[in-house]
Here is the input.
Amino acid sequence: MSSSINWSQVYNTPIGQILQDLSPNTFAQLATQENNLQISNYQKQEQTDQTDISAWSTLQSDAQTFGGDLANLSQSSTYGQLQSSSSDSNVATAIDQSAQQGSYTISVNSVAQAEIDSGTTANMTVTDPNATLMVPGTTTPLQGSFSIAVGNGSAVTVNLPSAGESLNGLASLINSTAGIGATASVVQNSSGDWLLEIQANQTGQAITYGDNGLGSTSSQPNGPLYYLGVVGTGTSGLSAADRLQAPSDATVSFGSTYNSSNAITSSSNTFTNLIPGMTVTVNAPGTTTITVSPNTSAMVSSVKQFVSDWNQWVKDTQNLAQSGQVVASGTGSSATYAYQSNPNQVLTSGLPSAVLDQVGQLLAETTSGQGGQYQSLADIGITLGTNGQMTLNSTTLSQALISNPTAVQAIFQQLNGTIGAGGSTPGIINGFSQGSTSTVGEAIATLNQQSAQDKSQARLLQQQLNSEEQQAILKYGQWVNQVSRYSEQYSLLQALFNPQGSNNSNGG
Here is the structure.
């Protein structure tokens, strides 16, 4: 009796089924499961460290910003801000830099104007601004060169291309020439003809032209600007043939009536020498009164920023460092209270809340100690609610700033000395947020050190895991070889003890 083994069915045996269920990856995962778990734990801890660092950094920034606001409000310069206004802004406007408070009446006799010159149709008529300019009565393109000088500036030469140029092209050529000091445009007159118009880029400065055509002479001019009617002759140093607007200076005097004997002149409409510490821009002839007064709105804005930044610090501390808070429902005797947990809490340290509570208490209690109407934040319209947030009554604050800005400053000076950086020793805010030895600085340093250790441990474990994976793959190969031999033996034994089944299965 002969029998044969069907090797294709080796993996249909129970032993072969094990090979199918246990892949190399599964085998390696089982061998490195413990290290993978440890690496995952270190990575999670590192993520937690980074989240904590971010939270501490946020509170550090909030405290430093609030401390900066407090320092700013303790400075005299904050309360010395001035603003200027004009009784008739159509005549003149003013920007104060450091002018003395008071009122200044000025009379504007004239405003500065730029020279504007226009071409004429006396020598050439242009009906198409995009057509090549031709010497009148010929088919020769207009050629040559011309120059433009504004004020005491150097003359800048413009050369026409040998193939000629259109009127629009000539204007573009002027405008693209560096340092020319003037702007050209193409305009259409009432007859439908097109003219070249040139305007100086500076007010009060005259334009001088030079015009040179091919073979141009004083008796027989043929330069480009002559043919276009911008200048009246063909020699250099020309004046405009048609001056639409002559250059002029701005003239101003003090008083409600213009007085030429004490007038101040400017080639532009901006005066920096009219009122010391102020820039005045004249817009039209007339009389106006410029008033310099305290800029109360700017002072109010500084205090509003102080309130806003405090509220942000409170909000971030409550969100990042408090486990929850007691919430009240209802009012009076019917009020009920319940504890509400904070799902966003990141920091478990109680220091941020403790520092904030201490600062808040000092903000509410500190007085300037100078007596008078304004001694505390509450006196100038700033109050703290039960939730720690500040509210500001802008009307009360504005009245205090108008009435006695020095008293308002004294309140913030006292606070800055108590909780900021204005005292002989670092205040609470600086102790919490400034430098490596501050509360936040030490917390971040510790977390950075812990994060570095977590990274290092995870890296070492990863190296160990990689080695274990290689060992596991090697052992898996050895194990597969062994299992394969067992599978072959199983199939052989099955064929020996069940020859008929084996033959049937082979079709014999």
